UniProtKB/TrEMBL annotation:
Matching Gene3D superfamilies: Aspartate Aminotransferase, domain 1, Type I PLP-dependent aspartate aminotransferase-like (Major domain)
One GO process term, biological-process aspect: cysteine metabolic process
Similarity comment: Belongs to the class-V pyridoxal-phosphate-dependent aminotransferase family. Csd subfamily.
Organism annotation: Zhihengliuella flava
Gene Ontology molecular functions: cysteine desulfurase activity; lyase activity; pyridoxal phosphate binding
Protein name in UniProt: Cysteine desulfurase
CDD domains from the UniProt entry: SufS_like (cd06453)
Function: Catalyzes the removal of elemental sulfur and selenium atoms from L-cysteine, L-cystine, L-selenocysteine, and L-selenocystine to produce L-alanine.
Cofactor: pyridoxal 5'-phosphate
Length: 436
């Protein structure tokens, strides 16, 4: 049962069980077995499964349109370029951005590194007067949170080392809740960057983006949002969020691996010094110097992820047709069912604060049983979950554990999937002989 103080979405807007069963037919992998058990896939937080239309879009591109984009005047090259840029427009529109505000990257990790290294280049004197907002040095501060995935922590640690800036962070409470009461003390007049996750990849909890943006704006700081766990699961509008930069990955939102995206405000992208350099991102090159195109092309050196972009556009089309508000409402139901089923289990601790908004993700610790053993036991029951520190060691350390087991749902999961995982989980401690 959902605690009464948890905000819930309009149940009438949710998917229903019959619709989810119809959607499942679009995902070929969900029909396979693990041993003699039907696959129950509860690891979409790591990577999502792909509907048939996404698989077909990539195949069709290679069969019908394959050519280098933005190069050549022959028919295939023109058609490939059109498909590539149409994909950019589709993905940008999905998050409320303009096409020229969306840069293709290999994944969200690269997108965040792009911003961090562009800050480095600005701090080294590149970019002229326009790059002044990105120059860091001793006395400046970069603020993150203790909830961050390593992809939104290590690039900022490295930037601090390169520039002499100081890295500081907003801590979490003992239950993993972000200490928003301390945020005004951490974000101040010396803050130049505030980088934070929209949704915790471990806990599934949703950050108060508006409050952190408000504090960053007051300090004159640039905001960078890790939206890997929000864009696939929640309606996201970058203009409403009012962030300066936002990173997300295709493979977590029904798309292929090998592609991600960086949103950036147009004026900021055009002021950022490039990160990768080479062909296709320049206007003029002499033996002494080069001049660069405006965004997004200035950040897209070399041959791009063309087929992946096209298939990611198919993925956002699929998600849009289903409806992100309806997906979010369904996952909220599944997440509440997970939490309600985990909490009463003896020796099993549900990680994260109670009574707060979260997506359909639950991480837990089983007393006396290593998460890897938990994961293997569940796998034997056909249930795929994630085990380990989930690239968030500082958060686990704050929670008093080295690792955890995480179940993460998506639009193709059913209540029966959740119940099967809970049934298997109830048997874990007995199987390993650690019942009290």
């Amino acid at each position: 049962m959902v605690p009464p103080d948890v905000p819930t979405r309009d149940a009438a807007r949710s998917l229903d069980a019959a619709e989810v069963e119809r959607l499942r037919a679009d995902f070929p992998i969900l029909s396979r077995k693990i041993g003699d058990r039907d696959l129950i896939y509860l690891d979409s937080g790591a990577t999502s499964q792909k509907p048939r239309c996404v698989l077909e879009a990539e195949q069709q591109y290679y069969e019908q349109f394959n050519a280098a984009v933005h190069r050549g005047a022959h028919s295939l090259a023109v058609e490939a370029t059109d498909h590539f840029e149409d994909a950019r427009a589709a993905v940008a529109g999905f998050v409320g951005a303009s096409p020229d505000e969306l840069v293709w990257t290999s994944n969200a990790t690269e997108a965040i590194n792009l911003v961090a290294y562009a800050f480095s280049n600005a701090s080294a004197g590149r970019g002229g007067a326009a790059a002044e907002p990105f120059r860091l040095g001793p006395g400046d501060e970069i603020v993150v949170t203790e909830q961050e995935h390593h992809a939104n922590l290590i690039p900022w640690q490295e930037l601090a080392l390169r520039t002499g800036a100081t890295l500081t962070y907003i801590p979490v409470a003992a239950d993993g809740a972000l200490r928003m009461d301390l945020a005004p003390q951490v974000i101040g007049e010396r803050t130049r960057v505030v980088a934070f996750t929209h949704v915790s990849n471990v806990l599934g909890t949703i950050t108060d983006v508006a409050r952190l943006v408000e504090l960053a704006r007051a300090a004159g700081a640039v905001t960078v949002l890790d939206a890997c766990q929000s864009v696939p699961h929640l309606p996201v509008d970058v203009k409403a969020l009012d962030v300066d930069f936002m990173a997300f990955s295709g493979h977590k939102m029904l798309g292929p691996t090998g592609i991600g995206a960086l949103y950036g405000r147009r004026e900021l992208l055009n002021a950022l010094p490039p990160f990768l350099t080479g062909g296709s991102m320049i206007t003029t090159v002499t033996m002494e110097r080069a001049e660069f195109l405006e965004a997004p092309n200035r950040f897209e050196a070399g041959t791009q992820r063309i087929a992946q972009a096209v298939s990611l556009a198919a993925a956002v089309g699929y998600l849009s047709e289903v409806g992100m508000d309806r997906i979010a409402a369904w996952e909220e139901k599944l997440g509440a069912r997970l939490a309600a089923g985990i909490e009463p289990l003896d020796g099993v601790r549900l990680l994260g604060p109670a009574g707060v908004p979260r997506i359909g993700t639950a991480a837990f610790d089983v007393d006396g049983v290593h998460p890897h053993d938990v994961g293997q036991f569940l796998d034997a029951a056909g249930v795929a979950v994630r085990v380990g520190h989930h690239c968030a060691q500082p958060l686990h350390r704050a929670l008093g554990v080295n690792a955890s087991t995480r179940a993460s749902t998506y639009l193709y999961n059913t209540e029966q999937d959740v119940d099967a995982m809970l049934s298997a989980l109830a048997d874990v401690r007995g199987f390993f002989g650690v019942n009290a």
